[in-house]
Design brief:
Blueprint (H helix, E strand, L loop, with lengths): L1 E2 L3 H7 L12 E2 L5 H5 L15 E6 L5 E10 L2 E10 L8 E6 L2 E7 L4 E8 L5 E3 L4 E4 L7 E8 L5 E3 L5 H6 L2 E2 L1 E4 L7 E7 L6 E7 L5 E6 L4 E7 L2 E8 L5 E6 L8 E7 L6 E6 L5 E6 L8 E6 L5 E6 L8 E4 L5 E7 L3 E5 L5 H10 L5 E7 L5 E8 L2 E9 L4 E7 L11 E7 L5 E7 L9 E3 L15 H7 L4 E6 L8 H5 L8 H17 L6 E6 L1 H12 L4 E7 L5 H11 L6 H9 L3 H10 L13 E6 L8 H12 L4 E6 L9 H19 L1
């Protein structure tokens, strides 16, 4: 089978340069003039320009495609909804004006209406307020979120809950969808607080009139539900600290909720809903049992609360989520190797996904984000080391693959290549690391970026920070040290209670490998990271003053005993589960205090020899800002060079792009100075 592409698609694809044709389920394309013309690296500001597209979605029938765009004319912003004919996506779209709002989410509620969640109050503008502080003007804060239902034919719109003026005045967030109710095209299920008691409730909302009917109330700490055909089967109750929630279950026909398990709020949850099944009392979840190494997809019986055996599992890899069709039925499991992969439960889909990957010369991550009822048309969101994001339409029957729209104006041929490295550590273990080259690939300095978590992982994909640094002529290394997540519990636990030694040594071994493999300048290496990566940056500066010429630490942990004491004070669970989670991974202050103090950068500030930059959000709820404030005080007292930036109104590295651009400018100035 050969898949054809139209002339317009070839032109859109020309920004990638020559794409290699492949046989079988393959695609062929020719290089366009843009690839040959533009070779100058992007400016730093290019990476922080507003995205031109905020989302793409496929209608349930697969006949239409919705695209949310942000247009700027004479300095004024307006969001628009474009609706395309999926049978002829290059034809002019039907366009509806949304307005000067941030569009955060978009989905088809039916074949006729599109739901768009908007943030009112405008995009926050940033200003430099002092040498120590960055912040947003109060006029730029988000005031409220609303869900708007738009008729895709006429552009007519209604705000859901709009018939309740008191609720609209007093409720900040009215934009949370729970269930699209595929068998009821006129309604959706949403979460909103009750007006009297201000606790979360589940509402059935008419997407044509905006009117809502209360169906069920949660507890005082309820934050969400999962449903099956409109019937709640899982409920999520958050603890007071906001760092863990209890999962409750209820089978259809039952009245009482029962406890299933307590889960930390984290980037990689240990229990996650995947999909419903054909059986009313059984759902699919992602979970790991106590005696298992990897997280797998398995059945969960809502009546017995029993787990079934894994139905999708890989050795040495935690499942990264599930793929479902338009009705929420399970199609397969997603995994991260170096790139995104699927194990399909519907085998005939596998060759089509392989064809999409071959189209990009197996360089990109092809995530399937939309599947129609017939499983004929797919929306793929494509990213990669040199691809900041683009949406494609894959049509099985038409044998076509159309580039619908890029997310940004960044061009692949002006970005650096990325590659995977297999690193052998000093004790004989093997870890994966990812190396981004500067455009052109000339040897030069190296920036090391340990990830946060630490039980998350980096992948061979798009990383804006890495590419922004690479445009300076620097190489960027992202190691998955032992203690990282995604590779199974054995790999993660190899870093438990090894903060400050094995985890740091793995980073150092990855640096040595990259320097030798690519002939880089071993005398010009710097380190930066956020959260755990901020800790690793400062600890690296302490342990290897001969290696690192500068360290940037963002929202980092710098005093382990103080951090564990904070977790204990903040842990309001009956058995201190969150605190125990961290003592298993970092150490127990009652028995390991000396080791914890040795592994705390604040306690060893006098060992720092290189310039340091500390950055922290003043309202960080994950790592309290006092960690950075006290680290700065310790460095000042030791007479070590440090620049400290505190960002008002920001949390855990969640500030606006304008602030990030200002910060990145400062990081680059520091690195230029030490590399000079």
């Amino acid at each position: 089978m050969t898949i054809s592409i139209c002339a317009a698609t070839r032109l859109a694809l020309s920004r990638r340069g020559l794409l290699i044709g492949v046989g079988g389920l393959g695609l062929a394309a020719t290089a366009g003039p843009a690839a040959a013309r533009q070779t100058t690296p992007h400016s730093l500001a290019d990476f922080y320009a507003h995205d031109g597209v905020n989302g793409v979605a496929l209608s349930p029938s697969g006949e239409r495609i919705a695209i949310i765009r942000e247009l700027y004319e004479r300095g004024a912003r307006r969001a628009v909804l474009d609706v395309l004919d999926a049978a002829n996506p290059s034809a002019p779209p039907k366009r509806s004006l949304i307005g000067d709002v941030d569009c955060e989410f978009m989905e088809w509620a039916s074949d006729e209406r599109v739901l768009v969640r908007v943030a009112l109050g405008g995009r926050a503008r940033t200003e430099r307020t002092s040498a120590r502080s960055l912040g947003s003007t109060t006029s730029g804060a988000v005031i409220s979120r609303r869900m708007v239902s738009i008729d895709s034919e006429t552009g007519g719109a209604v705000v859901l809950f709009d018939n309740e003026p008191q609720r609209m005045r007093t409720t900040r967030d009215l934009g949370a969808i729970v269930d699209l109710l595929h068998d009821d095209p006129d309604h959706v299920l949403m979460i909103a607080p009750t007006q009297a008691r201000r606790i979360a409730a589940l509402y059935k909302v008419n997407i044509i009139t905006g009117r809502a009917q209360e169906l069920e109330r949660g507890d005082f700490d309820t934050v969400g539900w999962q449903t099956r055909n409109g019937v709640p089967v899982l409920r999520y109750d958050m603890n007071r600290a906001g760092n863990a929630f209890e999962i409750m279950a209820r089978a259809p026909g039952e009245r009482q909720w029962t406890f299933v398990r307590r889960v930390r709020v984290t980037e990689a949850p240990e229990f996650e809903f995947i999909s419903t099944t054909e059986r009313d009392d059984v759902i699919l979840v992602s979970a790991r049992q106590e005696d298992e190494d990897v997280q797998s997809i398995r059945e969960f019986d809502l009546k017995t609360r029993a787990y079934g055996p894994p139905i999708a599992s890989r050795a040495g890899a935690d499942v990264a989520g599930g793929l479902t069709d338009n009705r929420g039925l399970y199609l397969g499991a997603a995994y991260w190797n170096d790139r995104l992969e699927y194990d399909f439960a519907v085998p005939e889909l596998a060759p089509h996904h392989r064809a999409m990957n071959r189209f990009f010369d197996n360089e990109c991550n092809v995530r399937l984000v939309g599947v129609d009822r017939a499983r004929n048309r797919f929306i793929a969101y494509v990213t990669g080391p040199r691809e900041p994001g683009a949406w494609y339409l894959y049509d099985r029957a038409a044998r076509s693959f159309d580039n619908l729209t890029p997310r940004t104006a960044l061009q692949a041929n002006r970005l650096g290549n990325g590659e995977a490295l297999e690193v052998t550590t000093r004790d004989g273990a093997t870890i994966r690391a990812y190396l981004t080259a500067p455009p052109g690939g000339a040897p030069g300095p190296l920036i090391v970026m340990p990830h946060g978590g630490p039980e998350v992982r980096d992948v061979l994909g798009w990383d804006r920070t890495a590419q922004a640094l690479a445009t300076e002529g620097w190489w960027v290394l992202q190691p998955n040290f032992r203690g990282s997540g995604g590779f199974g519990r054995a790999f993660a636990s190899a870093g438990w209670r090894r903060w400050g030694d094995r985890m740091q040594e793995d980073v150092e071994d990855a640096v040595a490998h990259a320097v030798q493999a690519r002939g880089l300048d071993a005398g010009k290496v710097a380190i930066m990271g956020a959260s755990y990566g901020g800790y690793a940056a400062l600890m690296g500066a302490i342990l290897r003053p001969d290696l690192y010429k500068a360290a940037v630490a963002i929202c980092g942990v710098f005093d382990l005993p103080d951090m564990l004491a904070y977790e204990l004070r903040d842990d309001r669970s009956s058995d201190n589960e969150v605190f125990r989670f961290w003592t298993r991974r970092i150490g127990d202050p009652s028995s390991d205090r000396a080791a914890l103090e040795r592994a705390s950068p604040r306690r060893r500030a006098g060992d720092v020899r290189c310039p340091v930059m500390l950055v922290h959000g003043a309202d960080d709820g994950i790592v309290p800002v006092f960690q950075s404030r006290r680290m700065k005080e310790a460095l000042d007292q030791a007479g070590r060079p440090v620049d400290y930036v505190e960002i008002r109104g920001a949390g855990h590295a969640d500030w606006e792009d304008g602030v990030e651009l200002d910060l990145m400018t400062q990081y680059i100035e520091l690195f230029r100075r030490v590399f000079a």
